[in-house]
Amino acid sequence: xxxxxxxxxxxxxxxxxxxxxxxxxxxxxxxxxxxxxxxxxxxxxxxxxxxxxxxxxxxxxxxxxxxxxxxxxxxxxxxxxxxxxxxxxxxxxxxxxxxxxxxxxxxx
Amino acid sequence: xxxxxxxxxxxxxxxxxxxxxxxxxxxxxxxxxxxxxxxxxxxxxxxxxxxxxxxxxxxxxxxxxxxxxxxxxxxxxxxxxxxxxxxxxxxxxxxxxxxxxxxxxxxxxxxxxxxxxxxxxx
Lengths: 108, 122
Fold this sequence. Notes:
heterodimer, A: 108 residues, mainly beta, six-stranded mixed β-sheet, four-stranded antiparallel β-sheet, globular, B: 122 residues, seven-stranded mixed β-sheet, 11 strands, 55% strand
């Protein structure tokens, strides 16, 4: 099992708010980054650090962290946000990287 | 704008070595704090970090793959390479390279290459 745990699937009604979480002991010490992946495409970073959004990423995406949990929130989800989302951080020992298992976001 | 492109054989025989190259264009990964990472994704499954290397050749690897992986850099060609030996069908995946950014305790992969599918089969 991965050192970072994500819910396999989450759904949200169009225009509503959804939070995608990532849990792991290493998150108490290291920040997470988040990636959006649509079918047949390479992942794209949507958040890094506590709440740093790369240029071109809509401001409806935000990040937060508390204790062993990092979160990616989509406020006012749009149809184009439907995708797989992966968190990434360092592993428990700090000497390697690890991805969460991914969360499939469905926008209803 | 920095771009990365993976290249290499799309088919590898079981027990042989998988070899891929990541070519960097539009700039260079020349800071010791910037790494090039290799990540793979088996069909229908999630992302798995394989390992990373910086401009100076400092590497770190996924503990579960460390015994089979070698990542190297050719600064003259602005290329990074991945070798994975003794492959099995479980190594069939889309392989990505990505710049690994490290800034003040923050870490992220961006940009990514488009990925290349490698199938392990006889």
